[in-house]
Amino acid sequence: MAVFTSKDFDQQESVAFEHDEKSGLKATIADIDSDKSKRVAEEFCATIVPPEEIHRGRADVFLPCALGSAIDDQSVQEIQAPIIAGSANNQLAEPHHGDVLITRGGRYAPDYVINAGGLIDVTNGLKEYVVKESFGQIAHIYDRLLEIFERAVDEGRSTAIIAHRMAEEGFRRPPPVRLQAA
Asked: Which domains does the chain have, with CATH numbers?
């Protein structure tokens, strides 16, 4: 049974809760909007805790969502979940918080890597939308995360630093040559 905590609940977590609820998911949520917390807790049988305590709960995954800088000098020492994978942008208040997570045994999935699925889907919607093509591209995010985690372990660096380096490498790589039929 998976247990995860979500701070600042949003629509992405709603989909995850809906999918995993059937398999025995236990969720703990926090949001600055108490009415939204109550509605979501009722709909998904989730437990509500105050936003300033959500990261301290025992969980398999911590999902910082909506508000950035959720991982700061204090919370980075208190996070109980071994996996941090939320949709909030800029979850690390400072780059060194990624290093602290590594030393504490945590696995941080950089937000711009896991959020790439939304950008891929929107971009594909600008042309003739093919669900299979879009999902195929999104599936590569898993492989990219595995590569980030492996390189982080091999190099003894945080996943945040490795992901940043890989993005820079991608920017420096020349675009593929596309030949057009005459």
From this structure: 1-108 (3.40.50.720), 110-182 (no CATH)
